[in-house]
Structures are given as C-alpha cells and as structure tokens.
Amino acid sequence: TPPGPADTAGGTTATKGVNGSSVKLPFGLDAAKVPVLGSYGAPGSRASLTSEWYQLPKRSPDAPLVTMSVAGTVGYIDDLAVTHPGPELRLEFGRVEPDGSVTTVASQVPLGIATDPAWRNMRFPLDKAPPRASVVRVVAADTSSDPSGWLAVTPPRVTPMVTLNDLVGSKDPTLLDWEVALAFPCQRPAEVHNGIWEIPKWRITPDADGERVNSRNWMAGNYGGPLGMVDNDLSATVLPSYLRNSWAKDWGSLQRLTPLVDQTPADLVVTQDTHTGLWTPGPMRAIMN
C-alpha cells in the first residue's frame, strides 16, 4: 500500500461494517452502510461473485460514470486502451422486461489506473452502455491460486460530479505538490508567515508515479518538507476525481485535509537575529518517521 495518511492505503478498523468486514474503506465511504466483498483468505485463494441487480438512476450529464471502489488486482483497460490482465471484474448492464425478468444487454471491462493493490475507483462510462439499460450487476472471479492475486469490491455507484474549481475554490488554503502547482493557478497555496505554515484544507498531487517518486522525496517531512505536517497532523480523505472525457487517465488526486486535533492560532513572539551562512540550530527533525 502507498505511504502516507490517505484513506486509500487500506488497513482495518476496530468496528465491523454492515456485512461484518473490518476493512477500512476509502473515499470517506461509511462501512456501516457500504458492504465489501473479496477473495483475500478464500479457500484455495479462489472466489467468484455475481451480485443482485442494482437500479440505475436516470441518465444525467453531471453523472457520466458508474464507479466501483476496488482493492487488490483486477483486469482493466488503461488510458492508452491497453488491457491489463488480472482477476475478472465486469459490470453487466440489463434491461427489465415487462414480466419483471432481466435481460443482460451488455458487459463492460472497467477503465482503471495502475495503483494496485491500493483502493481506487474503476470507471464504467455510461455513454458506452445501451441507452435502454436500467440495471447493472457486478460479476467478479478470482481463479488464481496465488494468494497475492486477491481482489475486493464495493457496490457500484453513480455520483453527480462538480469541477475541482467549484469544490476547492480560490480562497481555501491548498497544498499544491510542486510538480502540479503551475497547472492550478486558480487555487490559493497555503501561506507561511514568520515560520508558521497555514494549515491547508486541500492537497492536490500529481499522478501515482509522480507522487511516489517526487512528492514523497522532495516534500518529505523527514527533510523539512510540508508532508511532515500532512503525515503527522492531518487526516487525508481522497476524493474520487477524473479528467473529463479521459476517464482512465491518472491525472493526480484531490485530498481533503482535516486536523487530527482542534487547532488554535499561534501566539507569536517575533524577534530578529543575525547569523552566518554556516550557522545551524540543529537537526531539522529530532525524530524521523
């Protein structure tokens, strides 16, 4: 799983969810309402799933995707239309007949990004689904005997979307990872005054590789970078986000940052001192993460 505090990293909770699972869900999903099923620990490491049918809402321009939160390894199609092998995961679209029966009219392999085994959203564009399809169901199969080939899924969702600018705005303090800062001129970077950093409400990161290779090194808290505060003082909830009309693109991520404890304004005593360029007050951090 990826480093840092983001809620896509997995783990367990002390409280069991609606179907008895203790798995920590991503994206702020409420385990008391959202079930999770998976093949991890299944006999022979094999398992299969065919869910009941879920009703689709009326098609809407602001809700162009059916999404499903997935962990582990699954087969998917990336932004270059390359199919990646893995345990089967499909979304079947159905049409309800006059007698109440359901006829399967289409099946989609998900669009996805390469961040496994961490939680991520698989994407099923509704404009690729038959217009008369009114229900969907999940079909999954882990036929590998390799214990590392597990998968976990939550039910499908259709969620209205807003633009990042509408949600974050231009007034909230935001931590812009250095690799993406110039791409978001409308967002206000969190400020530093007299050595005190304004607590950011949001963080915008580059894609998974950029976050791992660049942000986690150049911005690391162990060396005085801003991720020291994010990792130790704030809780990060990843908000599912997508590049419009390029649904499989890993553009980066948007995180909502919440202080772990209540914050109060610092009472500053500002003084001035003169030192040579070789002076040091000591290590940047006394204790490393």
How is this structure best described in words?
This protein has 289 residues and is mainly beta. It folds into 2 domains: 41-153, EmbC, C-terminal domain, subdomain 2 (Jelly Rolls), CATH 2.60.120; 164-259, D-Maltodextrin-Binding Protein, domain 2. 8% of the residues lie in helices and 28% in strands. The chain has 3 helices and 18 strands. The strands form 5 sheets. Strands 2, 3, 7, 8 and 10 form a 5-stranded antiparallel sheet that branches. Strand 7 and strand 8 form a beta hairpin.
Task: Please give the structural blueprint.
Layout: E1 37-38, E2 47-50, E3 54-55, E4 65-72, E5 76-77, E6 83-84, E7 88-96, E8 102-108, E9 120-125, E10 135-142, E11 151-153, H1 164-168, E12 173-176, E13 188-189, E14 192-193, E15 196-197, E16 202-205, H2 208-218, H3 227-233, E17 234-239, E18 253-259
Parallel strand pairs: 12-13, 12-16
Antiparallel strand pairs: 1-11, 2-10, 3-10, 4-9, 4-11, 5-6, 7-8, 7-10, 14-15, 16-18, 17-18
